[in-house]
Amino acid sequence: MRFRHPDGSLVHLAYCTNVHPAETLDAVVAQLRDHCEPIRRRLGRDRLGIGLWLAKDAALALENDPCALASLRAELDRRGLEVVTLNGFPYEGFGSEQVKYRVYQPDWADPERLRHTTALARILAGLLPDDIVEGSISTLPLAWRSVATPARTETALTALRALGDRLDALAELTGRSLRIGLEPEPGCVVETTADALIPLTDIGHPRIGICVDTCHLATSFEDPGTALDALAQAGVPIVKSQLSAALHAEQPHRPDVREALTAFDEPRFLHQTRTLTATGRQGTDDLREALQPGALPDSTPWRTHVHVPLHAAPAAPLTSTLPVLATALTRLVGGPRPLTRHLEVETYTWQALPAELRPRTRTQLTDGIAAELSLARDLLTDLGLKELP
Asked: How far from 166 is each of 26, 52, 104, CA to CA, in Å?
């Protein structure tokens, strides 16, 4: 979906396809037919943006076969879909029954991460619409903290510098300008936007910036205005923003609140949980740990890394951090110039929600994602952006 900002520039809105478990190229093509095109039709739009997730095997198939890449591009066109951004964070197995810590491998100290991301950049250059010259890719924030050492972190930064040089060369070759955004996430080396300032300043390459995920921003209790202002003052480009909402528990000491939270404790994904006290931010790697007696202070609100549907807040006594998203979006695109032009709805946890909230049919999932995109569209038009055909 395309929008015209009051300054005349284009702002793109997509939804991320990592919600669909597609590991191979054939599966990616099938999801365009089974999910993406029906969502476009449900919205009544001639064109729908998708933030494509390409797992290792799918990316290899496209990287090694120009005909396959051309065929995928033709398939996108035929189904009224367009791609200006890729989700390069998960490498493989994101639809597995248990993902947890595996999603952070390979990290940026592993040469395979550089190879894979370079392949994604070349693929995206071939998928961009004819009238678009800018693309974006989100990626993991260096590494999970427990495996990081000073030497590995320096190796990771060196790899990102090399990637910047490769993107420069790709731009000269194709005329397509691609940028990479580190996506701060609780528990990682770069947990917050503030944590990103030093490494990104150290890298110092205009093609290497940040992806602001509003669920992660909220989970870490970052103030959107403060965070985005600091990025702007440091000259860190906001490559893209993922529009997502976290789980919020205002009174975690209450038994009914803990019972409600327990329903979101599931085995597939990590659900990092944080609270902000007078002594600073405290947290656990997973919700199950947080729910253990005494694991976290419970006199202040908790926020949990669960991407809850934007249009449907959890039932009381829980709620979502949608207000944080709205505030961040106002800063991102509500000013005289957009701070980013790539926005991506990224609720990948539909099938990991409590049983009563999960879509039971493909149609229910289509309706849910379409409702999320409709909410995001309304937020954008309320900020003065004009939806384009």
From this structure: 28, 21, 23
Q: What is the C-alpha to C-alpha distance for residues 60 and 69, in angstroms, rounded to an integer?
A: 11
C-alpha distance from residue 298 to each of 207, 215, 216, 220 (Å): 41, 21, 20, 16
pLDDT digits (tens, 9 = 90+) for 371-385: 999 999 999 999 999
3-state SS, residue 269: coil
What's the mean pLDDT when you consider all of the chain? 97
Q: pLDDT over 70 for what percent of the chain?
A: 100
Enumerate the H helices of 297-387 as residue ranges: 322-333, 362-382
Is-contact 116 56, C-beta < 8 A? Answer: yes
| Tokens of residue 41, six digits | 């039709």
- Residue 25 CB partners (closer than 8 Å, separation 6+): 57, 58, 61, 62, 68, 72
E runs forming strands in the chain = 2-4, 10-16, 48-52, 81-87, 134-139, 177-182, 208-213, 238-243, 245-249, 273-277, 280-284, 302-308, 318-320, 342-345, 386-387
Cα-based angle 227, 202, 167 (whole degrees, multiple of 5) = 95
DSSP codes of every residue in 119-135: HHHHHHHHHS-TT--EE
Confidence at residue 313, expressed as pLDDT on a 0 to 100 scale: 87
Q: C-alpha 207: how far from its chain's center?
A: 18
Q: Assign residue 235 a region: left if phi > 0, alpha if psi is -120 to 50, beta otherwise?
A: left
- Of 215, 248, 243, which Cα lies nearest the Cα of 314? 248
